[in-house]
């Protein structure tokens, strides 16, 4: 099956981030988006551990491990960037000051419900971090995830079976197969990986899809 690579997924997300937006990139796949923000576009990246104005990942050998994102990965700081107390960072998140957050997920429901911190398995390590604050506090929440689980099951589902992070908070999902808007309980496909047909996408997706490509 034709798929986008992780870097292609990140570039696809970056393409949709508007000029001047304040954006949080969650741990995991979303951190790759920082490397694909167009050089001529001003996007202010926020990290929940207390950084504002992050740039792309540093070149090999230029890492400064006193300057990291929430996933403990070294980052760069753009001119005018700053770092501050963890509590101030969460105040930004909870106060509605972020235009957009991009989070990973275990499951997303067609209603926009998000499950991304715990699978419910007894041996799984829960890792909620600031996901609940971001999912509800940001003006828009996007999810970046692989379309299928390791078991081959659709991660876009009619109803989340894992513990919830937030209700009706996700407005768009970017997977390695497609970009899907969630509107009023409907999953509307706006882009598909080149070479993949709509029917093939529907066969591996657990919810009815609407072809909304123009």
Q: Tell me, what's the shape?
A: globular
Q: Please give the count of helices.
A: 4
Largest sheet: 10 strands, mixed
Coarse structural class: alpha/beta
The main sheet orders its strands as 4-3-2-1-5-8-10-11-12-13
Measured as a percent range, the helix fraction is 10-25%
Oligomer: single chain
Q: Indicate the low-confidence ranges by residue numbers.
A: none
CA-based gyration radius:
17 Å
Query: What share of the residues does DSSP label as strand, in percent?
Result: 25-35%
First and last CA, distance: 23 Å
Overall mean confidence score, pLDDT: 94
Record field, number of beta strands: 13
Order of helices and strands: HEEEEHEEEHEEEEEHE
Would you give an account of this structure?
With 214 residues, the chain is α/β, with parallel strands linked by helices. Helix content is 15%, strand content 26%. The protein has four helices and 13 strands. It has helices at 6-15, 86-94, 131-137, 198-203; strands spanning 22-25, 44-47, 51-54, 77-83, 100-103, 107-109, 114-115, 140-144, 156-157, 170-174, 178-183, 186-192, 209-211. It has a ten-stranded mixed β-sheet. The chain has a three-stranded mixed β-sheet with strand order 7-6-9, with no helix packed on it. The chain is globular, with a radius of gyration of 17 Å. The two termini are 23 Å apart.
